[in-house]
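debug: dumping io for the single-chain case to check the tokenizer round-trip. Nothing else runs in this session.
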Amino acid sequence: MNIVKRLMPLLCVLLVLFAVSVTSSCSRNNESSVKDVVKNKLDQLKNLNSETTQKYIPYKELFPDATENTNLSDEINEVFSLFFQKFDYEILDVSVDAANNSATASVKLTTIDAQALARDFAAELLRTRITEAAQAQTGSIKDSSKSLEAHYLILNQLLKNNEYDSAETNCSIPLVNTGSDKKEKWEIQCTNSLENELVGGLIADLADPDILSPENTLTVYLDTLEKLDLKEMSSYLGVVNIMNTDDPAKNSIAAALVEQVRKNFKYIIKSSSENGYNATVTTEITTFDSDSILSDYQSRLDDYLASADAVIDGSQKRYEKSLEFLLDSINNNTATTVNDVDFVLINDGVSWKLQDEGNTLGDAIFGTLTDSPLENSQDTDSKDTDSQNNQNAPNSDPSTDSSNNSNSDSDSNGPLKDSHNLV
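debug: decoded output
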């Protein structure tokens, strides 16, 4: 009996140690099983397994606001392959909650710099939208700023053409045991948070309305403007209003104005301030001196109107002459002007956008030439016709007709100094 009493404490200790050993062994087995599941799935991402990629990062989730759906194309597959080519991971810790049949794996992920990619994408999408708006008058309209497939084409080009740094992020992967205590079956629970973490935060970055600052947004507007062709720039800035295929002179004036922009336009962003959803970006704009152009034009026109030729030519010829003078003044201009312009941008919850973009940029670039000295040619033709009718009226005094005709001609050219119908 004494021996038994002495052995009892020792047996209890051994039982406790055995139980702890069994529990610890089960826990290690659970952790090992969880780790194997996580390792298997992440290895598939690392090895660019498209089926696994689409299971954990549905391709429509990157751009939920895109208006058009599309089937899984080669371009979309290639985007994920390019994105995950730098993918790597390290399992830091695994915790198992056997009572709740759940587990969590803490993992350090290595991906490309998702924020830099999202910033480049937002800039490229804005360039596309501006270009398409500029093409609206030319008939070659696309929907790249809305189409889901086009979004992926932009990502594809960015990933192909740019070299992005690697970035490390921590990720928590939840798992659930869908089997039994005796036969475990651990599965990863796919959540919105996990989708975002597996792509280094790209989903959240793409949806960030401040991914481009007001200054960066305005930079995209101004840089894109410089790269537009003649028709696109004319359309976007409103100069298209004088692009009349039936009037070659007006077409020439529009082309000359755009060429002045190309030769002289420069900008420097000086400061920026934000107030809620509004921002003001003060920018130093260098452009052609529209006042100099108009001064030269008016001087030449005044000299011409004071000559006998102006009386002889008639109102229609005088109108054509005024167009020639304006075109020459534009083509010969070398003067520039520098002004500070306050651009107002508004954040609509999706991104920053330039308020009244075409008109705002047109005013900043064309200056006083947004108000033209030219009147509508049809009005001039009408006045010329009225003058001719007066000359042919019965019982008229020739000397009176001559006087009236002269006054009519003078009046028809008077509005050339005051009309504002060019753009």
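debug: round-trip ok. The chain has a mean pLDDT of 78.
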